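Journal club prep — side note

Before the paper discussion, L.F. wants everyone to see what a predicted structure for a comparable chain looks like in token form. Sequence:
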Amino acid sequence: MEFISNYPWYYTLLCLVAGFVFSAILYVRDKQNSERSKALLVSLTTLRFISVSLIFLLLLDVFIKRLVNETEKPVIILAQDNSSSIIAGKDSTELKTEYTKSMIHFVNAIKEKYDVKTYVFDSESKASESFDFKGKETDISKLFSDLENNYANKNIGAIVLATDGIYNKGTNPLYSIDKFNAPIYTIALGDTIPLKDVWIQNINHNQVAYLGNSFPVEVVVNAIDLKDKSVTATISNNGKILKSETITINSNSFSATLNYMLDADKSGIQKYTVTISTLEEDKNKQNNSQSFVIDVIDNREKVLILANAPHPDIAALEQSIAFAQTYEVEVALIDEYTKPLKPYALIILHQTNTIPQRINNELKANNQSVFYIGNNFANYSNGVNSKSLFNPKTNEVEAAYQKDFSLFTLSDDLKSFIKNFPAVICAFKNNKVTNGANILITQKIGVVETDEPLMVFTEINGVKSAGFLGDGIWKWRMRDFAEHHNHNLFNELISKTVQYLSVKADKSFFRVFTKKIINENEAIDFTAEVYNQSYELVTEPDVTLILKDDKGKAYNYTFNKKQTMYSLSAGQFPAGEYNYEAKVKFGDKLYTKSGIVVIKEIISEKINSVANHQLLFQISQQSGGKLFYKNQLEQLQKEILASDSIKSITYSHKQLTDLVNLKWIFFIILGLLSTEWFLRKRNGKV
């Protein structure tokens, strides 16, 4: 132990001198003290000298530096698998009763020697001493990741992992055990003997379909030890069987993929159920049925291409726009077109040197978005002013992507590939970009990247427009196919452009947002926005919401107010269909929004119920632990308590303590002054 001060050493000497001078003046120079005994004067002088010196020393910011030893007990982490596959076997009753009691006894026994932390885990992990085996998914790697974050630099003596080894989420836990410098003891639960079973392994399908279209569904059916048996697979919607076929199981380890095309003949969220007929020998009938939902949309936007004459560009555009099945594309010659334009979300004008007055007037009256394509537009002035809008002289230009473009995002692959697009024909112009225009692609002549726009976007008074100021965009589609054997990058460019231009701004004063389809282990989250008549965000009024399940039970909520929006987390709900209605009263008007949320059941734990004890053995072996079974908890207890590797760790570190913070210094000074006062009082000095 040593003393440290922020002041030079002679300040300490000055404190002692100050104490000596103060006590000397008080007791030595006072002539009345000559009548007192010498022993009394020495005692009083010493007491005053020490107390005054200590008081002055406290003013010098004196610190005591000492070496402190701290002992940290080993932490034993017990992680219990809480997923439903644990009790899928015939020993479920034993696991809920005898095993639970044995586990409590095991924890209490090792608590006397170690610091025990108990966790339960399924798709997430949490500190808890109780478990109910109701988890819908299992992610062992997530457990290890959480333990690493929570116990970094801690003295982990051992990890006890109680599970059946089945994981259906996350990565292989073997890749995560190197994070710990501690043995992992595994408690093997569940049954490793495969039961006779036929089940639906997986259903692959689209999330969205469009009314009137067909969509594919792929069903993977597996079976174990049911050779020469036959089952029937059916797909139904609202109780109506849409598809049915008989499957003959021709091996003891059977797998088959069934492919169907279903018609999207009803709009909205549609629930379909795939069912495999049960057999008497089938030991697990819970996995014979699975449901999936598809959002069938009936508001496919229409896109109209009006051209001056047939051209390869038109076919390239039509195929790319129709590829996503989000739009209906129509093509017509502009001089022959007589139908109204209002039904179309976007008008594409291709190489139209002049636009008929009727079409021009209708475009302005409808405030419709227009995509101009051509190298000699006399009508495209939204975003570009040209001193010479029509010039017979042309030039071949390549494309250069503009990094500061921000209207929508493109993939990194497309951004880097734009420079590889072949040259297109552009007219000689002296173009000047107007304020508010956003250039996606500029013209590159030779090796020089110019400021001349090749593809530009603008929005004036809420009306969006775009211009591709060249001829030969079809070459870009061909180059994409030549390089990648598909048209994905070109399709992305066109679809993002069309999507931006065709999306209409929501002008409602009350808006509510949520996911239409979620999993049952996710919370239903809502956000809402309220606007005043000037379309400014406000949060003064209260927004309420009523959520109803398919049985009519209602749940009432009030949104939380944030700076510019409202938010609500309604929590997790069982699988099913829920209707919601949100309301807000602003001023003298009541606004309402309603919708449907479908919660999908998670059936991962029902598909595979065969325990993977080999994985648990590998985890224990690689980490230096051992594998035990559920009836060997007493042996595990002895193993841990007798382990020489699980030890307390003593840490030594230097500690600085400010002298003024030591309470015993205060009591010493108080004692010195009190003793001095008592002696003076007793001898008549006070």
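L.F.'s comment for the group: The mean pLDDT is 87. Keep this in mind when we get to the figures.
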